[in-house]
Design brief:
- The chain is mainly α.
- Helix content is 76%, strand content 7%.
- It has a two-stranded antiparallel sheet.
- A hairpin with a 2-residue loop joins strand 1 and strand 2.
- Helix 2 packs antiparallel against helix 3 and helix 3 runs antiparallel to helix 4.
- The longest helix has 39 residues.
Length: 157
């Protein structure tokens, strides 16, 4: 890889990490706001409210990661001349969008299952009055796993 291609790859990886944080934080915020809204306004327990909040946040996560985060990882880098590197965006065919959606849902569901298990364990250990703090800690721990599954499997071209 020439020096220009290396710079483009580094910039792309940095943008991807930034987009992952922005999209992930947005989805986490939606998840958290839906969770506290359900718990505060209904008789649904925090454990069940977390399931409903996950489903709402999944939509934000998929759309953001599909169009922003992992779009960069599916770019085609070509060298038109020895010193000129261009990036041509790869637009996945319609058929593969469903495959990506299914893989991202499987990745997200695996992360959520781990999240929910740790969340319920935390609720049992510390009590439901600490559900917000427990959720924040657990979500932070699961984020790395979800990014890895997304990058290496669900959105991999």
């Amino acid at each position: 890889m020439n020096n220009n291609a290396s710079k483009v790859a580094t910039t792309s990886a940095s943008k991807q990490a930034l987009w992952f944080l922005v999209v992930g934080a947005s989805a986490a915020l939606v998840h958290f706001l839906v969770l506290i809204n359900i718990v505060g306004n209904t008789s649904i327990s925090p454990a069940w409210a977390n399931v409903l909040a996950f489903l709402v946040a999944f939509v934000v996560s998929f759309v953001g990661h599909f169009y922003l985060t992992f779009r960069q990882s599916t770019s085609n880098i070509t060298n038109d001349a020895p010193t000129h590197t261009t990036i041509k965006p790869h637009h996945p065919p319609q058929k593969s969008t469903l495959t990506i959606l299914i893989k991202w849902f499987a990745s997200s569901a695996a992360g959520f299952i781990a999240n929910q298990g740790l969340f319920v364990l935390g609720l049992n250990w510390f009590g439901e009055r600490y559900y917000m703090l427990i959720w924040l800690v657990v979500t932070g721990v699961i984020t790395v796993m979800t990014f890895t599954l997304g990058k290496l499997w669900a959105f991999k071209s």
